[in-house]
Amino acid sequence: ESESEVDDDMADxxxxxxxxxxxxxxxxxSDMFSPPEKxxxxxxxxxxxxxxxxxxxxxxxxxxxxxxxxxxxxxxxVWKDGVVESIIADSFVFWQEDNNRPEGLMFVKRYNVERYPxxxxxxxxxxxxxxxxxxxxxxxxxxxxxxxxxxLDFLSQNELGGAMGPPSGMSPPP
Length: 174
What we know:
Blueprint: H1 3-12, H2 29-33, H3 45-55, E1 58-64, H4 69-79, H5 82-91, E2 92-98, H6 102-110, E3 118-122, E4 129-134, H7 144-157
Parallel strand pairs: 1-2
Antiparallel strand pairs: 1-3, 3-4
Helix pairs in contact: 5-7
């Protein structure tokens, strides 16, 4: 075939469908289960702890195991819930790490974490764990409502003292 015949054949074919632009309704699986970067404090444990101390907020730690689906579901079902995001923004600095990365492994060893997912509330002044929950499964799940009930109860019984919340213009390390 000559080049002009190939061009003619291609002209007879329908054009490919337009590429649909991604919007908030077109989320991929990886987006649904991705870490909640919007509320996460970057850096290592000590950076997050110092930031929590500076902000006079509790340090909320989440250690995950990549092979455990309950960990991914926590990202989708709890951390990305609007009410949960609001509670965390008001009263916590949130630090999430995988159990097999160096910083996550350090936390696992220091605090004797044996089951995943694991969430803990750490006093940033002392590095002591004030609350810990770990090892739930998809069959015995952990919902955003469960989290809110537990954490609001915790906040009603514990305070760091002083004004809560960051000074205006302050944001967690990336």
